[in-house]
Amino acid sequence: MTAMSLGQTQIGLRGIGVAVAAVVIGAVTDWRLGLVLAVWLAAWGLNIVLSGRGGAARRFVVPAIFGITLLVLWQMAVRLFEISPVILPAPSDIWVALIDSPAILWADFVQTVVKGALSGYVMGAVLAVGAAIAVDRSSFLQRGLLPVGNFIAALPIVGTAPILVMWFGFGWQSKAAVVVVMVFFPILVNAVAGLKDTQAMQRDLMHTYAASYWQSFLKLRLPAAMPFIFNGLKVSTTLALIGAIVAEFFGSPIVGMGFRIKTSFGTLELAMVWAEIAVAAVAGSAFYGVVTLAEKRLTFWHPSQRAGR
Fold this sequence. Notes:
The protein has two domains: 81 residues; 211 residues, MetI-like (MetI-like fold), CATH 1.10.3720. Helix content is 84%, strand content 0%. It has 13 helices and no strands. Helix 1 runs antiparallel to helix 2, helix 5 runs antiparallel to helix 6 and helix 5 crosses helix 12. It is flat, with a radius of gyration of 25 Å. The two termini are 22 Å apart. The relative contact order is 0.09. The N terminus is likely disordered.
């Protein structure tokens, strides 16, 4: 057993001791609290054992047990302590809302994620990379565009979204415009930094080969910038979904995640609100995963990708 594994085991044993004491205290004060703490302790102990192993157990089983434990504890807390569904619905109620309203959830998904977030994300990314190339070639744009971009990126979305909705209408186009504004500058800043991430020796070597600007760009600078660009793309996946949902709060047709969350909250249908949140979370995670997979395929040569294997 390595020193690191031994230290992790000792920390885990101390944590178990504290948890056992918490279970005993909880059982004395309230059996419901003791039961919740006992389930948490059992799952924690199982994860500690599995974390010491390698392979699929650490990569997949441990996160799965952690997520399932959270759902079980959530369900137990709501049922045992009789928490009002207006305050916090149980996962079982959210599941019922999911399976009872597939058509509504699908229509909201298409309107918000596909039409609003994805289209705006693609347009914003293309514009950002194109602007980064222009900034890289022009010192004037570098001194003028980037400070303005940082200023616009700092504007609150709740302030800009209503304006863009009024400009582009209540359809998906206004949501896409909000997403373009949100994702443009994170990708731009990362792309500009990546295009400058080449060593002087590498640039001199391309000059020795009499390479033109575009040859040097395609064979040296763009590949070097790809990890930076993907960092901006990954950050922007969550920004795109948030922007599209928030924009729908300020005007949309009678469909969309933001519209459904707003109206369901007004009628106290909290299970539907959480169902929409669950769909958004799954969509955002899948979106991020697709971009991460593309990064691994296209930047397999980068040290960060080789180190993760």
